[in-house]
Amino acid sequence: MEDNHIIELYWHRNENAISESDAKYGAYCRSIADNILRSHEDTEECVNNTWYRAWNTMPPDRPSRLAAFFGRITRNLAIDRYRSDRAKRHGGGQTAVCLDELGECIGEEQAIEDRLALREVLGVFLRELPKKQRDMFLFRYWYMMPVSEIAERYGISEAAAKMTLGRVRKKLKDRLESEGIGV
Amino acid sequence: MTNRDILLDVIGDTDEELIPVPDRIGKGNRTMIRVFAGVCAAAITLAVVLPNVIKKDDSGITQPDVQVSETTSTVAVKPTEKLNSEGMYGGSMGFAGLMAYDISELDTPSPWRSDMQIENMPVYRNLAYTGESAAFICVGLGQEKMAEMAQQTADALGKEIEETTITYAGDFLADTRSEKFRDEVFTYEAKCSDNTSVTVYGNGRIFVAPGESVPLPSGYSFTYSGTTAEEADRTLDYLTKKYSALLGYEDPVCYSVADRTFSGDESRSYYVYDKAEDSVQDIFNFGISYAEFCPDDNGNLMCIWIYRPVAYEYIADYPVISEKQARKMLTDGRFYSSVPTDYLRGGRVSDGDIERADLVYQNMGGEHLQPYYRYYIRLDDSSFSMAKGLHNYGIFYVPAVDEEYLDEPPVSVYD
After folding, report:
1. Of B209 and B35, which is predicted with more confidence?
2. What pTM did the predictor assign?
3. Which of A112, A125, A126, A137 would you mutate first to test chain B, the one with the most B CBs within 10 A?
4. Co-location of A82 and A101 in the same domain
5. Residues A79 and A107 occupy one common structural domain
């Protein structure tokens, strides 16, 4: 079913919207949640909650890119779950590793208070990056995709993928420092 | 919360347009960037439109008037207005691509043939056009006309309307959006006796959803995957006859198209359009006047979408270029497409990559409904993680109207 048809089902409060979303984007959302949580039960719950959240936001939302719309909801739900779990125990798939890697970009001495400024700087930074580097960065830190999978996707070695990601992190660190964010 | 946690959150807020939607993410996935569920013009969604051309009478009220072919052949108007291609720049839902093991899998009964000699084609104004200030929400028919269409639809289904619900553009537009369209009716929904709902949109599109999915008689196969083309033809023939009063087509032509998911599974769409004798009218109907039947997971009929060209107003007949001229523009990089050039073999479109050409009417919610040459371009397979032997075909458009009449002809993406 076409994306706009799925959206119309939501707008019509037609419960088939859920099954159609799951049929087309369930695997996609499960992969995102699983990258973050590495728990089948938690992943299933996140994906189910994704459709519930979408149900509550359409209407009035009319996403222009349905995959990214669902993916973002799943990512946020999974990270919330990860944080909740982290307070109780360790674990959580790629998220802990990704957080460690992001720690290279940003210091902890001074707490970030202006998220809007950070968002703006990051947005400009990503737009300025060559597409391949930007996509690799987002596969890693938006999707929490394992480095090995990113390497496979681009037909490069894992070491090469790590090197590219490391260079992008270094660029981001320099940019954030030059903007006085999180130094 | 640590700074790195905050950074992770902020990365999550990245603009959707920058987020790469992967062809395959994780293991065992089946989908992804399938923007066009069906290939045909039909699949293209849009804001849609109408079967009859609408003209304004002296009172200013829009009313269905003549058929397209009548306007083209006898009372052609010379073009004076320049056309724009708003909405054709692509990118709104990922990139437009279709996967198949061979281009022949994407065959449709498109009426256009390369040996046709077409010098002029009618162009229409999209009366449901609202523009960017109103988020391109499609309104324009008015409550009276929408109520009439809902009643006609219910009558054709043999249902009694028990309750109606109206939504307005203002229900969905943020306060800062254009005031001009806020009070326009966006949908007119009629709830019928057995919970069947009929929804008419402000651009003439109709959505029919039975209260419960309708089972097909045994022997008919109606699924996204696992139904052959021959089985689909039989099913479509049955559904078209069953709903003939609803469709109102004089000469229905059924067809299905099965593109593939990244794992190679079929994803079949089921269409019927109203064939016309006049070749230009036929091209118009194929892309603009059609219906789609949608199955549920159990092979039952879940819903029907009907696209009626009731919100277009004839502007004039415009000179069109030949496919050969369009092909030159394509290879020069002067096209509209949402396909990133990274996915092109060698970074550009070459003659050898052109797998198919078509001539279709297209409108992505913009001001004008006009013809475009649509090309299926073989993309660089190594850019995608697909099942072995599968190919990805990107969709590219070149305006068919002579560029003398275009407000801003496409410029080369290679410059």
Report:
1. B209
2. 0.63
3. A112
4. no
5. no
